[in-house]
Design brief:
Elements (H helix, E strand, L loop, with lengths): L9 H11 L20 H5 L1 H6 L15 H13 L3 E5 L2 H13 L9 E4 L4 H10 L3 E4 L3 E2 L4 E2 L4 H10 L5 E5 L6 E2 L2 H10 L4 E4 L23 E4 L1 H4 L7 E5 L5 H15 L6 H16 L1 H19 L5 E2 L12 E2 L3 E5 L7 H12 L5 E2 L3 E5 L8 H11 L24 H6 L2 E5 H4 L8 E4 L4 E3 L7 H12 L4 E3 L8 E5 L1
Parallel strand pairs: 2-3, 2-6, 6-8, 8-9
Antiparallel strand pairs: 1-10, 4-5, 7-12, 9-10, 11-13, 13-15, 14-15, 16-20, 17-18, 17-19
The structure holds pyridoxal-5'-phosphate.
């Protein structure tokens, strides 16, 4: 196989060359790259950015046979080991919507798609848009930390046996906390049953680009990979990729996604976002040392946390969860409950008082994300955490993490979402069909999907969560979860 020169950035270079020409711009974007200050954008962003902000469909840029954008996509496909790659400008959320719309074009419309119940909201949106019938696989849950992980090959196989007509399956790996599922085993099971596997790898864009990070799901058999390149891949916010693997469904997916992509993408893609994807791909594919720097920082931080009397590393306990087959070293999840404060309070105070941003928090944890090439000032974070420690003998209230069973599904999510609905109080909502998705955080697994019956247990659980100091119900109409949108 011919080796591919991944140091090249054809699309990004073509933009720069084009911008150098003396062009009279009489098209969009309407700022026309004016340097005279009329739009104030030049002063704010710098003239170079405006010059690169080119309209789509320019010959020699993204139009015509073998154009630089097409070449950039081919380089990305080669870097990730994909049959074909699409560049997206509305995040991995767009990739998830395309994935759901694509599965809806496989097999019999009456048959279900299997999906991890903790699916990202964008995949649930895709289910609503596409009219898919979902059958859910509940992931394992870390009750102590209030977080959900992934699915085991055993629970995946059991779900397939219970739903032998499934048209496809969707799982998430890695999780928000860096837990990696056994994608190889799960893909093999999916293929034995003749269905494609979608992996939402939003958090693992860098996988496969260094021997000490987990393998890229496409090389483990995934058929479709959702990749949030701006997360750990280093491109600009909102840029992302969708990759089709070389497996048995490659041709079908390529044809379907070519058609479905245009349904979801703007006709005015941002050249800046696309160029950032081209450059990020080249940096990842040629930058083992960048990932090595981030791994070293992650290791240093984990080591300091391990030796701290009041902190611990969540991933040190991952071995006890049967779904977790690996761990991403660029996610550092820290149990901060020993500081006498909640994870949410620690995260917020780190931001406001110390100007240190971490990615997320739960009741007792914070998660730090380390981008490739980023040497972390570990001393600064540890000093801030030390300064936050208070003496508090209370353990804090634990949320009741025995999740209530989901109510019976009476309608397709799409039908319930678009049905005539009304907003009623909590008591009146019991026994009615939800028109909305509701998920209590922690642990963020949707408790109610559109089309499912709202049960008394679920209402009590949602209201209890909402009443906690840091409890939050995503999708709720009110912060106390006392009003519900139901099908009339
Ligand atoms: C698992 C998962 N998938 C998809 C997304 C959507 O990614 P984006 O923000 O790029 O749209 C997220 C965002 O956090 C996510 O956590």
């Amino acid at each position: 196989m011919a080796t591919v020169d991944q140091s090249k950035t054809p699309y990004a270079d073509a933009l720069v060359q084009y911008a150098k020409r003396d062009t009279l711009r009489l098209n969009v974007p309407g700022h026309n790259a004016r340097a005279d200050g009329a739009t104030r954008l030049s002063e704010y962003f710098g003239q170079h950015i405006l010059e690169l902000d080119l309209t789509p469909l320019l010959p020699g840029i993204d139009s015509g046979e073998g154009n630089p954008l097409a070449e950039a996509r081919e380089l990305a496909a080669a870097a990730w080991g994909a049959e074909k790659t699409w560049f997206l400008t509305n995040g991995a959320s767009q990739a998830n919507r395309i994935a759901a719309l694509a599965i809806a074009q496989f097999g019999d419309p009456r048959h279900p798609v299997l999906a991890q119940r903790s699916a990202h909201s964008s995949f649930i949106d895709g289910i609503i848009l596409s009219g898919l019938l979902p059958e859910w696989i509940v992931p394992t849950i870390d009750h102590h930390h209030g977080i959900n992980h992934g699915v085991t090959p055993e629970s995946f196989e059991a779900a397939l046996r219970a739903n032998p007509t499934a048209r496809g399956a969707y799982i998430i790996s890695p999780s928000y906390f860096g837990a990696v599922a056994d994608v190889k085993a799960i893909a093999a099971i999916a293929h034995q049953h003749g269905i494609p596997l979608i992996v939402d790898g939003a958090w693992g864009t860098h996988f496969g680009f260094h021997p000490d990070v987990p393998e890229n799901p496409l090389r483990l058999g995934a058929d479709l990979l959702v990749s949030s390149t701006h997360k750990l891949g280093g491109s600009l916010t909102q840029s992302a990729m969708l990759h089709v693997g070389h497996g048995p469904f490659a041709d079908q997916f390529v044809a379907i996604i070519n058609r479905t992509f245009v349904l979801t993408q703007s006709t005015s893609n941002s050249a800046l976002l696309l160029a950032s994807l081209d450059i990020a791909r080249s940096s990842l594919a040629t930058g083992e040392d960048l990932i090595a720097t981030a791994i070293r920082s992650g290791d240093q931080l984990r080591e300091r946390v391990r030796h701290h009397p009041r902190l611990s590393v969540l991933s040190d306990d991952f071995a006890q969860f049967p779904d977790i087959a690996g761990h991403d070293p660029l996610h550092v999840s820290i149990d901060v409950s020993g500081l006498g404060r909640s994870g949410h309070e620690v995260r917020t105070t780190l931001m406001t008082d110390f100007h240190i941003e971490t990615e997320i928090s739960t009741d007792n944890c914070i998660v730090a994300i380390i981008g490739p090439g980023h040497p972390v000032d570990v001393d600064r974070l540890m000093a801030a955490l030390d300064a936050l420690a208070i003496d508090d003998s209370s353990d804090g209230e634990q949320l009741p993490l025995d999740l209530p069973a989901a109510g019976e599904a009476r309608m397709l999510p799409r039908d319930a979402y678009f049905a005539t609905s009304e907003v009623v109080d909590a008591d009146s909502a019991i026994g009615r069909i939800s028109a909305d998705t509701l998920a209590a955080y922690p642990p963020g697994i949707p408790n109610v999907m559109p089309g499912e019956i709202i049960t008394r247990e679920t209402v009590e659980f949602l209201q209890h969560t909402a009443a906690q100091p840091n409890g939050y119900v995503r999708g709720a109409i009110t912060s106390s979860a006392d009003r519900y949108r139901v099908v009339r």
